[in-house]
Amino acid sequence: xxxxxxxxxxxxxxxxxxxxxxxxxxxxxxxxxxxxxxxxxxxxxxxxxxxxxxxxxxxxxxxxxxxxxxxxxxxxxxxxxxxxxxxxxxxxxxxxxxxxxxxxxxxxxxxxxxxxxxxxxxxxxxxxxxxxxxxxxxxxxxxxxxxxxxxxxxxxxxxxxxxxxxxxxxxxxxxxxxxxxxxxxxxxxxxxxxxxxxxxxxxxxxxxxxxxxxxxxxxxxxxxxxxxxxxxxxxxxxxxxxxxxxxxxxxxxxxxxxxxxxxxxxxxxxxxxxxxxxxxxxxxxxxxxxxxxxxxxxxxxxxxxxxxxxxxxxxxxxxxxxxxxxxxxxxxxxxxxxxxxxxxxxxxxxxxxxxxxxxxxxxxxxxxxxxxxxxxxxxxxxxxxxxxxxxxx
Length: 393
Ligand code: NAD
Ligand code: MG
Fold this sequence. Notes:
about 400 residues; alpha/beta; Rossmann fold; Rna Polymerase Sigma Factor, Chain: A; 3 domains; seven-stranded parallel beta sheet; four-stranded mixed beta sheet; globular; binds nicotinamide-adenine-dinucleotide; binds magnesium ion
């Protein structure tokens, strides 16, 4: 029996993970669930999966959940805050941790899971973008097993040579072809992008996801974050990664080998495939995903991305090349700008401008300690917020 903690259980990835677990009660047992403040959904999940621990990051939400659980006959300890998240990510009795908190809030618990030597199922790409060096070092030093959940990285992992471990260089690989749907505005006239609303930006053509990653997909910052994520996971430089727009989202990424072979992983765009793959690895289990019908797909298309239309992707390439804390700054500024956009305080095309101005205002340094990462993250958030305030004046 594999004992599991799910960080971010109430989100899109968390719910898909529980759906896979529901299909395999003989294989997986939920030990802990966590969320920020969605008490209602967490209560439902507690009733169904009976975790031993539940963490609400928000202290008020933890109190409400505690009250709501009193009428249920459940032996479940309610914790709150970062300490609670870190605790359930590193419990002795837990084998695997699904890291599916969105954004920088996921860094400390995801890192704690790596430091506790767990099987880390990593969806929280921001953790790796902020602190890839430290994260990969923790995985290596503590004998953790890092398996990618992001569909592209999971596809690359599946297309790697037999016995491949994340964080190592794969023999015979020439390039990684990182596919991207291009998001909802891949064909939009750049002039029209200024007026894009949050509702339009979160309506992704192929995938159903949380709001932040949906906006990231619309700006293509998601692909930029994934580029940096791939550099760390597969130990390659950004020059070895090519972003390929593939609008059908059927091929989830490819590995190009020196002998001319290109291996791809395909399937319907449903996150339960990479989740089930990583949870059961190296075995295969049923995930609930419909079989791929090639005849209804009909065509697969590939295009080059337009970096003028998608400046966020260019900024991420620049951050990957600069190294050090550049991607910590990129990630922090992006989180602030996306939040402001979702709050109707910023236009869609301003997101890239805020990130670029923040990156220009900050000198990058070596990302060699957690203190450095956390202080650069906080500073970049402050700078980005100030730039937004000045724009409003
Ligand atoms: P989501 O917004 O649907 O869910 C986020 C989860 O994190 C929720 O459970 C929420 O309660 C929790 N959370 C949010 N803020 C928190 C905080 N401050 N402290 C503690 N918990 C907090 O997001 P999602 O779409 O499930 O994405 C989760 C992560 O997975 C992101 O890093 C995203 O980039 C990555 N990812 C998602 C998908 C997808 O299809 N949704 C695909 C690939 C990668
Ligand atoms: Mg992805």
